[in-house]
Please model this.
Amino acid sequence: MSAEQKKAYDKARSRTRVNIGSAFQRWRELKEREGLRSDTEVALFLLDR
Model:
């Protein structure tokens, strides 16, 4: 991947990123505890509660 392609990829990806700051460790713990495989699954788990 060229530097230009990587820049475009990163820009597109950043549109869907959410900074959870200090909650990151808790997010990872929840993900592991519930056996969730992706961050998308964690988000859906929390939304469905």
